[in-house]
Amino acid sequence: MADKFDVIVIGAGPGGYVAAIRAAQLGLKTACVEKWSNEAGKPVFGGTCLNVGCIPSKALLESSHKFEEAKHDFETHGIMAQDVTVDVAKMQGRKNNIVKNLTQGIASLFKANGVTSIHGAGKLLANKQVEVTDNAGNVTVYDAENVIIATGSRPVEIPPTPLNEHVVDSTGALEFSEVPKRLGVIGAGVIGLELGSVWARLGSEVVVLEAQDTFLGAVDQQLAKDALKQFTKQGLDIRLRARVTGSEVKRGVVKVSYSDTKGDHELKVDKLIVAVGRAPNTDNLLAPDSGVNLDERGFIFVDDQCKTNMPGVWAIGDVVRGPMLAHKASEEGIVVAERIAGHKGHVNYDCIPWVIYTHPEIAWVGKTEEQLKAEGEEYKVGTFPFAASGRAMAANATMGMVKILAHKDTDRILGMHIVGPQASEMIAQGVIAMEFGSSSEDLAMTVFAHPTLSEAVHEAALAVEGKAIHIAQRKKR
Ligand SMILES: NC(=O)c1ccc[n+]([C@@H]2O[C@H](COP(=O)([O-])OP(=O)(O)OC[C@H]3O[C@@H](n4cnc5c(N)ncnc54)[C@H](O)[C@@H]3O)[C@@H](O)[C@H]2O)c1
Questions:
Q1: What confidence category does residue 2 fall into, taking pLDDT thresholds of 50, 70 and 90?
Q2: Which of these, 224, 196, 227, 223, lies nearest to 209 by C-alpha position?
Q3: What value of ipTM does the predicted structure carry?
Q4: Ligand 1 pocket residue status of 210, Cβ below 6 Å
């Protein structure tokens, strides 16, 4: 029998590695099991987010945005940059280095905090035992007082578009060695829009096929409509109500069949990205006698404290209910570690920010206007466009707005929605305000530095009561 641990975490993504570090900080004897290997057969930490998700996509989004700026924006500033070209291999190399640095950083953090790293595939047995099978097939069983399952998710595959060299998922779409001339994307969700943007900026003709009739249904529709206009202007051809029915690859060309309200269509592209959602990783994870239940959608069933139905077994992140977001997973990891150590911990699921890293970025926290209407909640609205912001003008980034929704009677902020420059950074102001139960008046009475983009948040808060200074509003006395 191998060592016994206070905590064994299965999975070293942003949920698992954060849980392991926090548990070790709290004095618990902690191990983290990870099966991912690099070419040298060494363990790779960081999960989807660091290796094939958030971080590499942001690296490519930054690089491609710079290219787009150099081509289309510099001239506005009086900077002439003729014949700007892209070296895709160099761009990819930079991205790979960032990933390497970050993932190796986790190994150092594990060492510094005394987390034992176990390389292999983890499986939960009965009585909180964890079986680990290494690359060579050797099996070791470990005992634990507590097990935290943090195995994440994987891209969903659909029968009409089996993956191959030309039809890829989000991982493949981060690895293109050249810019595809024609690129198809299935799914106008977060991944489809971010990766579609990267390659469109680098020169691909991009067509996005989306089955729903509403663009970004989870986003406040005033902002979603604004964003759709911008994306269309940038050349993304977004086709709604388009249901993909099949695909065929012939001589390097992907023929995609889809139908919409007007009938059946065909689209020819050089690469096709399938970005239709993600599914929880539970395959071969739970021995039949582990006793852990899944919910009706195949996620590990947990309560609001991330406890499964088996005492001492917890689950966090993409493998459980709730948004598939790295920061939600990390927060759950911290809370579970704290609870195991006997402390109190709580995730405020009402204050989790969302960001889509397109240009302009889309970010929000709390309820949308559509949700408030559906719930019959009475609310007030304040908006402020970046077109009226001096700092946005200086940055040549005047598209979009800030929108604040506040309760009609209590004035408590119910939601903040931003489409525009640096929305990913600015949304933290809404998250903090909501976490502290602020009213729109609290924000309106706060001093914001001038000139900053954040002043749009201030003005939107002032606008809730018709008091915005830099836009004309109907008078309220
Ligand atoms: N910036 C971020 O926070 C970020 C980035 C990437 C991924 N993620 C997370 O990863 C998860 C997966 O992202 P995603 O973009 O794959 O999923 P998503 O759920 O955001 O979007 C998938 C889209 O595909 C459409 N779709 C499904 N089947 C289709 C079909 N057959 N034909 C056409 N359209 C179809 C859906 O209607 C939906 O709009 C999300 O939950 C997201 O939260 C987050």
A1: low
A2: 196
A3: 0.94
A4: yes
Query: What mean pLDDT comes out for the span 298-307?
Result: 97
| 312 labelled ligand-binding | no
**Residue 115 known to bind ligand:** no
pLDDT at 213: 97
> All domains of the chain, ordered by start, with CATH?
4-155+279-347 (3.50.50.60), 167-276 (3.50.50.60), 351-463 (3.30.390.30)
Query: What's the pTM?
Result: 0.96
Start-to-end CA span in the chain (Å) = 76
Active site residue 77: no
Ligand 1 centre from 413 Cα, in Å? 28
What are the φ and ψ backbone dihedral angles of 279, each rounded to 5 degrees? -120, 150
pLDDT digits (tens, 9 = 90+) for 100-116: 999 999 999 999 999 99
Residue 114, token pair as written in the block: 């005394």
Predicted confidence (pLDDT) per residue in 343-397, tens digit: 999 999 999 999 999 999 999 999 999 999 999 999 999 999 999 999 999 999 9
Cβ(191) to ligand 1 under 6 A? Answer: yes
Ligand 1 midpoint to CA 53 (Å): 13
* 158 Cβ closer than 6 Å to some ligand 1 atom: yes
275 lines ligand 1 (CB under 6 A): yes
Amino acid, res. 288: P
pLDDT tens digit sequence for 212-228: 999 999 999 999 999 99
**Length of the chain, please?**
477
Tell me if 239 CB under 6 Å of ligand 1.
no
CA distances from residue 343 to 26, 63, 228 in whole angstroms, order as listed: 10, 43, 45
The number of the ligand 1 atom at minimal distance from the alpha carbon of 354 is 3
The pLDDT assigned to 473 comes to 83
CA distance linking residue 169 with residue 191, whole number of Å: 10
Name the residue with the closest Cα to ligand 1, atom 12.
277
> CA–CA distance from 22 to each of 19, 29, 37, 108, 136 (Å)?
5, 11, 24, 14, 30
